[in-house]
Structure formats: C-alpha cells, structure tokens
Write a structure and sequence with these properties.
145 residues; alpha+beta; Glutaredoxin; 2 domains; four-stranded mixed β-sheet; 6 helices; 4 strands
Length: 145
Amino acid sequence: MRAWVLPVVLAVCGSLVAVVQVSRGAPGAAVALSLVLFGLLAVLNSSLAFPRPIAAAEAERRSAVDGRPIVYWRPGCKYCLRLRIRLGRRARRVHWVDIWRDPVGAAAVRAATNGDETVPTVVVAGQVHVNPDPAWLRGQLSPPD
C-alpha cells in the first residue's frame, strides 16, 4: 500500500492543477501538459518503472544458478530510480526484490547495512554493495539482447 502513496499523491496533484487551469480558462494543452507531467512523475515513482520484483528467496536461488546480481529496492527511492534508468535494457539482467513487498528482502538489507534499510543494496557474487555507481553495476552485466 505505501508503495503507491507517492504516485497517487502526484496523480491527484496533477488533476488538481488541471482543474485550476480549466477554471482559469487556460487552454487544453496546458491541462494535458500538467496531467502528462504529473502522470510521468507518478509512474516513475511507482513500481511500474521497474521490472517485476520477485521474492528474496527466489532471487537468491536464481542468482546461485545464473550468477545475476540481486538489487534490493523500494518504490519512491530516487537512488533506485537512478539505478534503474541508468541500467536501461540491462535491468532485465538483474533480479529485483522490492523490500516493501518482501519482509525477507527487507531483513536481508537490514542485515547487510547494520540495521538500516538503505537501498539500492546490490549483491554481486555474494558481495554486498550499498548504493553502487550505476556504471559499475552496468559493467557487471552482460550486454542486452
């Protein structure tokens, strides 16, 4: 539920801005711009901008088989979004665990970060990296298909 609070607030704000513009007689293009801008912000701060998350236990099992990194993240985190955007298509080559949906994933992050839920926390070949440079992680991944 809390993963959708910020996106919903942004969508409501966009709608309110649009209503105010309409009441002031502003052209429809301004309304569309405000709705598009706030709509884009809402999507970027939601789970929709990320590949489908999996459970931490499943990510660990898969990573042991295919060697792909695991990224522990949460919606609304600007550093997670930056990492996701900078990975581009290579983001599909990572196992994504949403710590707000998976208590085991949140516990794994707390264990790795001395009790904090600092994200993104990335596990590559058993080594934990907290908020790594996206370019470094991109270098750890094979090229996109």
